[in-house]
Amino acid sequence: MNGNGTRATLALEDGVVMEGRSFGATGETTGEVVFNTALCGYQEVLTDPSYAGQIVTMTYPHIGNYGVNRDDVESARPQVAGFVVREASTRASSWRAAGELHRYLEEAGVVGISEIDTRALTRHLRTYGAKRGIVSTRSGDRDALVAKARSSRSMVGLDLAREVTCPEAYHFDAPPVPKPYRVVAYDFGMKQNILRMLTAAGCDVTVVPATTSGDQTLALKPDGVFLSNGPGDPEPCDYAVAASRKIMHSGIPLFGICLGHQILGLACGGKTFKLKFGHRGANHPVKNLRTGQVEVTSQNHGFSVDPALFERPEFVLTHTNLNDGTVEGFRHRDLPVISVQYHPEASPGPHDSHYLFGDFVRLME
After folding, report:
1. What is the tens place of the pLDDT at every residue in 214-226?
2. Is 328 a catalytic residue?
3. Does 354 participate in catalysis according to the annotation?
4. Which residue among the candidates 44, 115, 295, 345 is catalytic per the annotation?
5. Closest Cα partner for 262 from 208, 299, 222, 311?
6. Active site residue 203
7. How many domains are there within the chain?
8. Same domain for 317 and 293?
9. Which of 45, 245, 266, 333 is most buried per CB count within 10 Å?
10. Quick check: pTM over 0.85?
11. Which domain holds residue 277?
């Protein structure tokens, strides 16, 4: 709650309406209503640019108990369109806390709603799919709110990478390493921990905007190119698909994750499709088909690469999702190209997949 006991309403495009209590900023916000199954890490979730345009529901019932701090952020500010929780703690119980969650959201202008039956909401989204929705403290008119949800923009066909990318190229400052690998990282909505992981692996990273052409990237003479995570539908990102295809056929090592993985799949001539309710959380099992090992992974995506791509012999499926069998990773048989759908940098989540940054470095050796 935001301190004044304001009532709030959540309405979905299919007519489902839930009433709760406001916390964070007051006002009205629309977005795709999704759910995240992580038990903690809400500050990383809030600041992950991949959640742009989405109203995120946390399935864990008690959120905010350890407050917020200056370190557990993945971008400069919260990126979610809205935030839905069962119980919002207004007291921060952690030595690391620099403030309370509800005040953090209020200062950032993020509209939140608590005292919602998040279990019922999650079961509804699992059964009927992610829905456009609205959270409002301004109106309790159910019909009007449902109408606003229905008129809000759809995630299908929506290019959000342009909205969250950096305005210009920059060098990521990190302690110098001997003989670093020069990496150009495309920012489609990149999390900060990716940059930390790349530099820890021995890379000197230059970050470029999402719309940077393949020729512009090649002119920087990189040892490797990284395609980041990001929000929205990959298919409208034709500029990124063209750049990725150009870089791939140049022979320079290429590593894509999340949205970058989907863009790379399109660059290879594949297709993508929207998942019913997506994968969002820190506990998704993925099987590495090369080693047979199962990795517990952090995920955040609503689209997937069509497995028909692997009917072509030059592309090899490397990872699959054990929950629904969807594509979680692939490589090119002849070119130095690797790609995964999930988040090897985690933050939040397990560290089972950190090895992928080492695999990328070995492609550049």
Report:
1. 999 999 999 999 9
2. no
3. no
4. 345
5. 299
6. no
7. 2
8. yes
9. 45
10. yes
11. 161-364
